[in-house]
Inverse folding.
């Protein structure tokens, strides 16, 4: 085939079996040589450059074919086996139009050039791009779906009915959230010697100086083969975060025949075409549903942090799974019979099973402390409140869960944390029993809560003055399945009295007159999409994450005085309140948190009500949506480039308590995404990922050039690689990007002043031309170190000269031509 794969095809060495009598080495050593050679060339064609693998010396170089050959063959086999996790199957197909903008940390936007990307805030590791960057490495015939967790991304490609598709992932790999396996570094000869020496000294009772078991035995730390976060300070000091291992190049996961995938905070799951569930990532609190006898790894940092590095099948008690969704610490799924199953952490009632006090607690930590709020369910269990109700879709948020019935019009059920109006069922004004008693027959003098604030002094009852007084009552109107509306007193979390919750499914009465097709659940806010393409939002309003318009009268930015200004026309929204009692028992009310504005019931996004929305995504503090005419809309906090290219930062609103947290209160069209025709969108905590349906010609040219030189890469397209008629450069080092980054509030730095010449050069070009052949990088041997070439020549010398096919016109693999 032609195009970006051409150089990889040329670089593959095809070896035929030796003719009879032509081999100088034994069949056993020949096998070892071929395996070593195959491993070397597989790595060479997939990575290239000076970091080519250092293969062990192949046996039989002396031609004896004796014991030395056998030993070398075993070493070759061991080398091939140790690199099995790294040498995944080659992902074939065309480059998919998957783009992103926002935080480039953990390789979310590919291998970012940190010297040309601006940093923001006080975190030296945080780099971002507010211009679209293509994610090279996502290959296939077509993309189907995309899901994003806290710092990871999964994409479903090539899905065909009854055959399934493929799942690829990239991002932060720690705790197995990518499902790529342990990705341990290889065991070298030095490691083997250290291990043997340490074992011998341990037997003698002698301490071993400078020896680290975890680093030098064959079971090296998980993900040690992956790069870690690294930054070089201006003075030359290099800082590394060894615990943050990440993967920039997408890898294919072996997870059956997936048809959908869902990413949680630290775990993920996919449903397959044959109705099975595969899970991977953090297994703590039973969120994977694998039971007590699961095959999991243990984190070196925390003994209770267990995880599954590769996809594992869940023993699902129901029928064929149709949908699965991952929250922060729990998972929910439904089958083709309409039954709903949940597992994971039960705190805040997020499992919807009612009383969860009988569930097991987490084991004590190394200090003997037991978390009394760690009740959890290790395996899938049915939600009793939804038994007999045909559920067609389920969604898990951070602390909430949702279920949508299969009928038309649909009914939406919700349960979990109710703080900030996250249940979307409205709320009663929170009150103190002194002002409005929950039970009219019980006065303040008999209330257990009020007794905390009243004392007897000289025979007179007085009240202690407190900032908050005792906790207020939270009452709501709820409708349980197949029951009438009632007034319900919310339950309180034992560690925070303001964290109230409902532990069983209740109906969202606001959607009785509409047909909801999809719920998009976030951390503190959620959205719902109807069949008419209308988008509703509810929950915490801070940073404009709901997109319902202005909510804080002090959020307008007064440019001349560089401070917020008051806007009297902003609608009033409820906030968390506090109350106090003075010495005379008088009740006083106030605001507990100035920024805790929230929307207690679903509200239509007025600014895009005339646009039909087909899909949306919710991050922690921002959101995005795609319309039927394939336009992308974003809103929420703009920090770290989450919203894309913001032309005028002075038009954004500002948080009174966070000067750098400027945000957009209404959805706005992101014009830069039009050229890829978006069809799906996903949001991590700090970035936005877009799955398009068209690869623009100028981007295809960039893809071809990058693949021809480096095999795969991800970077902003330079000015030189854009089409001649294009007027908007997207290089991260462009002058407009520099000026914008330099004037942005909270920016700790920007692109270097000498980036303009560099932007016309292909991204990540090695210094001194290393790894690039004069003819455009088609030679598979260009850029390799001499030591590796010599070892490879030695391996080739064991093979008969007539066993090579298509060695090139010169007949030598190492010619300079």
């Amino acid at each position: 085939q032609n195009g970006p794969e051409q150089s990889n095809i040329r670089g593959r060495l095809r070896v035929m079996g030796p003719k009879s009598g032509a081999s100088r080495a034994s069949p056993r050593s020949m096998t070892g040589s071929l395996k070593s050679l195959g491993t070397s060339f597989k790595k060479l064609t997939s990575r290239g450059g000076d970091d080519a693998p250092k293969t062990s010396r192949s046996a039989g170089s002396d031609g004896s074919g004796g014991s030395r050959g056998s030993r070398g063959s075993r070493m070759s086999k061991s080398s091939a086996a140790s690199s099995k996790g790294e040498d995944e199957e080659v992902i074939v197909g065309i480059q998919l139009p998957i783009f992103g903008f926002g935080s480039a940390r953990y390789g979310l936007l590919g291998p970012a050039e940190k010297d040309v990307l601006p940093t923001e805030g006080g975190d030296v590791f945080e780099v971002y791009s507010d211009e679209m960057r293509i994610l090279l490495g996502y290959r296939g015939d077509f993309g189907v779906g995309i899901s994003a967790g806290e710092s990871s991304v999964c994409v479903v490609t090539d899905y065909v009915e009854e055959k399934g598709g493929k799942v690829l992932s990239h991002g932060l790999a720690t705790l197995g959230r990518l499902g790529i396996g342990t990705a341990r570094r290889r065991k070298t000869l030095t490691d083997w010697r250290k291990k043997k020496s340490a074992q011998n000294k341990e037997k003698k009772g002698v301490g071993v100086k400078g020896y680290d078991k975890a680093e030098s035995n064959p079971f090296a730390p998980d993900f040690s083969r992956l790069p870690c976060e690294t930054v070089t300070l201006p003075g030359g000091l290099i800082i590394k975060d060894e615990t943050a291992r990440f993967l920039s190049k997408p890898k294919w996961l072996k997870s059956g025949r997936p048809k959908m995938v869902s990413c949680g905070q630290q775990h993920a799951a996919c449903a397959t075409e044959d109705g099975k569930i595969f899970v991977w990532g953090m297994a703590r609190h039973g969120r994977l549903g694998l039971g007590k006898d699961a095959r999991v790894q243990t984190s070196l940092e925390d003994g209770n942090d267990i995880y599954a590095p590769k996809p594992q099948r869940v023993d699902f008690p129901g029928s064929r799974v149709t949908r699965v969704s991952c929250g922060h610490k729990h998972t929910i799924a439904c089958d083709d019979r309409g039954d709903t199953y949940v597992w994971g952490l039960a705190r805040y009632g997020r499992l919807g099973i009612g009383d969860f006090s009988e569930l097991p607690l987490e084991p004590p930590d190394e200090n003997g402390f037991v978390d009394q709020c760690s009740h959890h369910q290790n395996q899938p269990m049915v939600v009793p409140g939804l038994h007999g109700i045909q559920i067609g879709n389920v969604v898990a948020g951070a602390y909430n869960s949702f279920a949508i019935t299969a009928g038309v019009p649909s009914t939406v059920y919700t349960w979990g944390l109710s703080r900030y109006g996250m249940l979307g069922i409205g709320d009663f004004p929170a009150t103190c029993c002194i002002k409005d008693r929950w039970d009219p027959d019980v006065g303040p003098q008999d209330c257990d809560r009020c007794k905390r604030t009243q004392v007897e002094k000289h025979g007179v009852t007085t009240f202690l003055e407190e900032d908050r007084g005792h906790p207020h009552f939270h009452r709501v109107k709820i409708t349980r399945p197949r029951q009438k509306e009632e007034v319900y007193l919310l339950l309180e979390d034992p560690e925070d009295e303001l964290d109230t919750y409902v532990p069983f499914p209740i109906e969202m009465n606001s959607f009785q007159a509409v047909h909801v097709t999809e719920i998009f659940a976030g951390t503190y806010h959620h959205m719902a999409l109807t069949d008419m393409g209308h988008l509703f939002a509810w929950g915490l309003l801070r940073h404009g994450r709901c997109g319902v318009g202005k909510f804080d009268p002090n959020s307008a930015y007064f440019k001349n005085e560089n401070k917020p200004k008051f806007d009297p026309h902003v609608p009033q929204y409820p906030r968390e309140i506090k109350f106090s009692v003075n010495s005379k028992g008088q009740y006083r009310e106030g605001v507990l948190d100035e920024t805790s504005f929230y929307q207690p019931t679903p509200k239509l996004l007025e600014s895009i009500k005339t646009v039909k929305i087909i899909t949306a995504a919710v991050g922690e503090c921002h959101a995005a949506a795609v319309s039927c005419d394939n336009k992308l809309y974003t809103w929420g906090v703009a920090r770290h480039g989450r919203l894309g290219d913001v032309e005028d930062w002075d038009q954004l609103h500002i948080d009174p308590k966070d000067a750098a947290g400027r945000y957009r209160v209404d959805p706005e069209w992101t014009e830069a995404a039009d050229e890829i025709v978006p069809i799906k969108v996903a949001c991590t905590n700090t970035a936005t990922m877009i799955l398009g349906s068209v690869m623009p010609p100028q981007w295809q040219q960039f893809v071809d050039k990058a693949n021809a030189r480096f095999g795969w890469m991800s970077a902003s397209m330079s000015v030189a690689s854009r089409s001649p008629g294009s007027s908007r450069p997207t290089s991260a080092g462009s002058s407009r990007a520099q000026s914008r980054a330099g004037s942005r509030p909270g920016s700790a730095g920007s692109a270097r002043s000498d980036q303009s010449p560099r932007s016309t050069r292909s991204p990540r070009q090695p210094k001194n031309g290393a790894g690039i052949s004069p003819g455009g990088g088609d030679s598979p041997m260009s850029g390799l170190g001499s030591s590796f070439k010599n070892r490879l020549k030695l391996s080739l010398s064991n093979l008969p000269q007539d066993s090579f096919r298509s060695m090139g016109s010169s007949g030598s693999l190492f010619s300079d031509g």
Q: What stands out?
A: The mean pLDDT is 74.
